[in-house]
Amino acid sequence: MTDLRTNYIISHGYAESGRLHLQQWLWKMQMGWDLHPSIKLPEDGELRIADHGCGNGCDWQPHICFTLANSEFPRAWIISMAGELEDAQLQRAVLTGFDISAVHFPAPENLPGNVNLKVLDAFVDPLPEELVGKFDVVHVRVFTAVVKNGNPAQLIANAVKMLKPGGYFQWDEMDSESLKAIPPQPSVSAAETQEMLDTSLVSARSAMSLDYSWIPRLGSLFEQHGLDVLADFRMDVKKEFRKPMTDSLLMVLGHIAKIAVRDGCMVGTDKNWEELWNNSGAEIENGVSVTTDMLVCVGRKRS
Ligand SMILES: C[S@@+](CC[C@H](N)C(=O)[O-])C[C@H]1O[C@@H](n2cnc3c(N)ncnc32)[C@H](O)[C@@H]1O
User: Fold this and answer.
1) Residue 19, ligand 1, Cβ within 6 A
2) Cα(55) to centroid of ligand 1, in Å?
3) What are the beta bridge partners of residue 289?
């Protein structure tokens, strides 16, 4: 069966990078922070921060700068963190974004001086020795479609190895199992959209070997890997961000569906995909939103 995971990242190219801006903006606006408040950064020495699956690491877009306040730039987590640390005038910080592919990386010349981006598989085994015990914080966000066969254990083990004693691991996730169509009011139908979502989920699960059962268990998985859990919660996206979340999710689902239809692995409905997609479109134009729960889990490595 076609590996939609690789196919998705590569073939979606610039459109995926654009969608990541939206996703990054959404997380920052929803939470209001990059690091959960339970994380207390050490006040002296060199601070080292890592972000797995950093994506485009993109810095700024002139047309957006003119229309949004400074704090609302859609910046990648690693860049946003670099800005926050600079604002807080914290001690010397080095931020490293890791991703399995460099296709979305901006030119190093366009990155802040304390940010570097490198190619690394978050599931690599063994972890390169130079990364062991070096980081104060390791961060992961939106790996729903990256974790294979429902098993994030290797990634968590790597993150724990990368941390210094007392370091923090923060994982922000979207629970695909909670993917749902929400009508703006009971009189508006969301049935076609829900069927489209269910079909996409079944197809993505089977074509990409995905199993989302690990997502609600992140807290206990952290504990099994020797982390003290400081935060473990889920929330609905705020109403005002339902629309950007809908747009971001539809971009992913539409693209995955196109590949699945092309490769003959679209399953879960007797309807023609085009028909289902168009009917959902009509409902979405009537105000139906597509959302998933947003989760945050923070663990601390014992000293
Ligand atoms: C959905 S994007 C999330 C990007 C970013 N974390 C964010 O919050 O916007 C998933 C990212 O993980 C990367 N990725 C996929 N498999 C990976 C792996 N095994 N190790 C590291 N990164 C991976 C992809 O290239 C992509 O940039």
Assistant:
1) no
2) 5
3) 182
**Domains of the chain and CATH, by start:** 4-176+211-237+292-301 (3.40.50.150)
Helix (H) / strand (E) containing 299: strand 289-301
pLDDT at residue 1, as a whole number: 45
- Burial status of residue 207 (CB atoms within 10 A of its CB: 0-12, 13-18, 19 or more): buried
Going from the Cα of 90 to the center of ligand 1, the distance in angstroms, rounded, reads 28
Q: Does the CB atom of residue 25 touch ligand 1 within 6 A?
A: no
Q: Strand 47-52 vs strand 115-119: parallel, antiparallel, or unpaired? A: unpaired
Closest CA to 297 of 155, 195, 202, 196: 155
- Of all protein residues, the one whose alpha carbon is nearest to atom 11 of ligand 1 is 53
300 ligand 1 Cβ < 6 A: no
Q: Answer whether 101 contacts ligand 1 (Cβ < 6 A).
A: yes
Mean pLDDT split into 10-residue runs, the chain, 303 residues: 51 69 88 95 88 70 32 66 76 88 85 92 97 98 90 98 98 96 97 92 80 96 98 97 94 81 73 86 95 98 93
Distance 53 CA to ligand 1 centre (A): 3
**Distance (Å, rounded) from C-alpha 111 to C-alpha 150?**
34
Task: Report the alpha-carbon distance of residue 71 to residue 109 in Å, rounded.
Answer: 22
